[in-house]
Amino acid sequence: MNTMTMNNKLINTRGDMIWALMAGALCLVGLAGLGNYLLQGHDAYNVYRQVPWGILISTYVFFAVCCTGLCLVSSLGHVFGFKNFEGIGKRAIAMAIIALVSGFVVIGLELGRPLALIYNLLSPNPSAPIWWMGTLYSIYLGVLLVEFTLMVRGMHKYVGYASLAGFIGGVAANSNLGSVFGLLDARPFWQGPFLPISIIVTAAISGCAIVILLMAHRYAREKMPEDIQRAVTATSKIFALLLGVLMFFEFWKVMSAIYGTVPGQYDAMMILLKGPLAFNYWGLEILLGMVVPFVLLMSSGGRSLGTAVVAAISTLIGLFFMRYNMVVAGQLVPLRAEVDAVGPSGLLSYTPSLTEIAITLGGFGLCLALYMAADRYFNLDEQGH
């Protein structure tokens, strides 16, 4: 017999064993990367003075944005009063906490001296956006933990207030994360108001995608309740709408960079359009991350769960590479070409090391393992108010 009941839900022990093995394998890969990092220090990474931010930074951004997106989708029920969405709130918040913790682990291993984080408290610098990023996300994690605790204990009278605080905190932390890049005048590709705004849109997209996957996994072996079905259908339609908005944003971002030919901004855009990151951009970010899921969702009208699952997976892969492209492309244009060690193309180069890739995979393994543990030991299905 391959099934059992726990927390009023049907558990497929064989299926869960496969997921557990996958999570364990990814965590082991991450531990191998951690071991090499502890032996070699920051030299285990391929970042250097001219390109100080690599795939670990982009992975942290991906996790942090996913966290906010899940909170945004959850808030539709507890903040904005859409009753159908209340059934997904507890699971979405649990996953938001897990995503943020996974992001903290990844960025903690990117820092040369992780223990120096204590100076964020001992020696604050409110004029620095990156200080606000650490502070806001730390507070945000605390708010999410309080919200989840209230949900688990059935204290629904206070959940709405906590959800509102989480919604405000998520938008503030996420837009501030965009400002860490957008306020850098030295990097024209990042500088400007676009990133702090568009990162909220991509957060909502990632939240929709993850909620669809969570609900599909939860009800893979039993009939989905009608209210959850309506919520998933509505989420799929919101998902498609936001993808259309994102493609509109992306079009004008490209056009403004090409037409304006601003030094630094134009060069970085050419790296994406026809340079070393062209495949990542066209094949993974645009095609896999936007076009394919948009076509799938529009063709099904958001009513096919299987189609929505494929679109969600495709989008999350594309969004991961969108973060990577954003972080890396902005740095490959040298600030001082006459003194920086540039290649024949006049650009800097960066390829993640095996250690960086291992830690990235370990972050996803940790995320999966923590979700499986939460799903097993908590009742993540919303109870009646």
UniProtKB/TrEMBL annotation:
Its main location: membrane. It holds the Pfam family NrfD. Keywords: Cell membrane, Membrane, Transmembrane, Transmembrane helix. It is a multi-pass membrane protein. It comes from the Bacteria. The keyword Transmembrane helix applies. It is found in: Cell membrane. PANTHER family: PROTEIN NRFD. Belongs to the NrfD family. This is Polysulphide reductase NrfD. It comes from Desulfurivibrio alkaliphilus (strain DSM 19089 / UNIQEM U267 / AHT2).
